[in-house]
Amino acid sequence: MADGAEDKVTGEDRRGGSPQSVTRVIRLLEALCASNDPVSLADLSRRLSTPKSSLAALLRGLADEDLVVSADGAWRLGPGAFGLGSALTEARRRLHSSDLIREGMRRLCERTGETVLLAVGDHEGDMVTYVDLVESRNVVRYSVSIGDRRPFYATAGGRALLATCSPEAIASYLKRVAPRRLASTTEIDLATLTQSIEQARADGYAQTVDQAADGVTGTASVIRDAAGGVVGALVVAAPTERAQGRLDELARLTLEEAASISRSLGFR
C-alpha cells in the first residue's frame, strides 16, 4: 500500500461463505425483530452468546445507517431497518415462492441423484397430490406424473404432513380411511401407523420403504412459510434397491433442503 501499511488478512476474511461478523449482524437484527421492547446490550450478549464489546461495535455501525437506534440505554430497530424490510418484501414478491421451492428441489435432485417431488394435502385430508417434480437423470428412476394422488398413510410425504397434525386429527384420519394394502408390505395396522407418524414428528422427516408401491423408497420433510404454515412436503423418491444403504444420507439431505427452502420463504 502507498502509506506502507500492511494488509492483514484475518481468520474471518479467509473463511468461506459468510464472515462471522456478517452472521452476527443477521442474528442481532433477528433478535431485535423478535422483541417488542428495546433490548439492552447485556441482554443481546446473553441471547447471542457474543461478547458485549463485539456487539457494541456492530451496533454502532448499524446505528450509522439508521438500522438500529439507542433508546434509554437499550436498542431497537431504526427507520433504516423498516426501509430495508420493505425492499426485501418487494424483492420476495417478485421472486415467487414457487421459484424458490423449485430451486431447492433441483438442488436436492442433484445432491441425491433421485427424483424429487412436492406433495400437498387435498382439502378432504385423505390424499396427497404431487404438484411438482424434478426427475432423476438415472436410467432406472421413480416416475410419477404431476397431479397423481396417493393415500397419506402409505407415502413418506403423507406421513410427514400428518406429523404436523394433532394426535386427535391423526386418529380420526386413520379410522376414516381404513388403510388397505397398496403393495405387498404396505403397513395397515393403525397402532403401527400411528407410531410411524409420531416418529416422523420426532425426527422431522418420514421415510417409507415399499409402502405405496413395491420397489419404491420415499423420504420427506415439510416446507413451512414465513407464518409457520405448512406449504407441502419435499419428497425424495428412489428405487428401493438403490436407496438401501443410504437411507440415513437421504434423510439428512432431505431435512437440510426442506429447512433451506423454508428459510428462503421466511420461516425462522
TrEMBL record:
Known SMART domains for this protein? Answer: HTH_ICLR
Q: Which UniProt keywords apply?
A: DNA-binding, Transcription, Transcription regulation
- PROSITE patterns from the UniProt entry: HTH_ICLR, ICLR_ED
Domain called IclR-ED: residue spans: 80-267
> SUPFAM superfamilies from the xrefs?
GAF domain-like, Winged helix' DNA-binding domain
Q: Name one Pfam family in it.
A: IclR_C
Q: Which InterPro entries match?
A: GAF-like_dom_sf, HTH_MetabolicPath_Reg, Tscrpt_reg_IclR_C, Tscrpt_reg_IclR_N, WH-like_DNA-bd_sf, WH_DNA-bd_sf
Annotated signal sequence range: none
Q: Where is the composition biased (Basic and acidic residues)?
A: 1-16
Q: Residue ranges of region Disordered?
A: 1-20
- Residue ranges of the HTH iclR-type domain? 19-79
Query: Please, which domain of life does this record's source organism belong to?
Result: Bacteria
- The protein depicted here goes by the name IclR family transcriptional regulator
